[in-house]
What we know:
Layout: E1 5-9, E2 12-13, H1 16-29, E3 41-48, E4 51-60, E5 65-73, H2 82-93, E6 99-105, H3 109-117, E7 121-122, E8 134-139
Parallel strand pairs: 5-6
Antiparallel strand pairs: 1-2, 1-3, 3-4, 4-5, 6-8, 7-8
Amino acid sequence: MVRFRKIFCQGRVINDGLYRRLMDLDNEVFYGCGNEFKDNRDWWVLVDKNKIIAYCGCLYSSDNICIFVRAWVHKPYRGKGLQKKMIDLRLRAAKECCAVITYTLANNYASANSLISKGFRLYEPSYKWAGADVLYFKKLNF
């Protein structure tokens, strides 16, 4: 059974070693995209043979919305349902929120299909916070 480990919760580091490794990995994977490691986040990792093979995060806004941030799966592990497991994990974490929003690159069909399969629908935000060249998704009633 796949078990993601929560390593950061709302400003509290749960596993310092994995958290530092995740920050380094995230800087490599999302180089130049900015720092997403802030206090209003939760982060989870999946480790295999002492290597982070997948991770995801979410942030919680002051208006009770959960925003999925950064999800990544190491290439050899793709196509095994890990992206959907990360969506489910973050939906459970957001159970107190009124909505969940996220985005994906327009050409990332696998991520878009995973979101759609989990009940997310496309929407047009009033402010395109992730840029104009992405697809925005929202889920209510989860």
